[in-house]
Amino acid sequence: MTNILSKSQIEKMHDAGKIVALCHEKLRDFIKPGITTREIDRFVESLILKHKAIPEQKGYTGYPFATCTSVNDEICHAFPSSYVIKDGDLLKVDFVVNLNGWLGDSAWCYAVGNLSPKAKLLMDTTRECLYLGIEQAKVGHRVGDIGAAIQAHAEARGFSVVREYTGHGISREMHDGLIIPHYGTAGKGPRIKEGMVFTIEPMINEGRFHYKLDDDGWTARTLDGSLSAQFEHTIAITKEGNTILTKQGE
């Protein structure tokens, strides 16, 4: 079970989350056809360091970069590289910021240039899934309510939900006990309590939900080669509902 945090501890996580959100806001203008995913990684790392924070993913169980930059059929955890992004690519950028020992985590999906209609529908549906899941994250609900809402919406659009990668509790540790599947049955799973902080990060595939792992041991991609999209926020459970700690536009 994840830790129950105090109001002051959640505020410290919110401070980290604001840096995450700012980086994603800056990426909106930075991402364009013709740049490499390694350039994106350097851009994010420099912003994190500029704000006196630490790129928490770098060195985490041997991961060598500040970000994960997953393109098209790559579901998550892809290494930044010399790959040049091009018009029509679906790019996911995921990273964790450590500010004074407290963490913020958010992945965002970016349309590079002009997406195909199917890719746009996948991207829009995945974003909607995130917020439908967040709506269910409130005191007294169960973890299964989150996954059930996400799965119902994704499958109604003809898409599938990745099973193996989930949301998670987070505080001073990147993975803090609680697991948040993005599929499941309403009314099942652990009860959601005030003071919990966790991520919701649905990964939705155009085709089937099965995946394979690249030889690098990190990059997960769709087994059938179909597109995959992801959106993620870190949220805190409050008496009134929840607070998005990585909300952009603040």
Cα Rg? 17 Å
CATH class: Alpha Beta
Spatial separation of the terminal alpha carbons = 30 Å
CATH topology: Creatine Amidinohydrolase
Describe this structure in words.
The chain is an alpha+beta fold. It has a single domain, classed as Alpha-Beta Complex (Creatine Amidinohydrolase). 29% of the residues lie in helices and 24% in strands. The protein contains 4 helices and 15 strands. It has helices at residues 7-30, 37-50, 117-136, 143-156, and strands spanning 54-55, 68-71, 74-76, 90-99, 102-111, 160-161, 167-168, 179-180, 197-200, 203-205, 211-213, 220-222, 228-230, 233-238, 241-244. Strands 1, 2, 4 and 5 form a 4-stranded antiparallel beta sheet that branches. Strand 4 (90-99) and strand 5 (102-111) form a beta hairpin. It is globular.
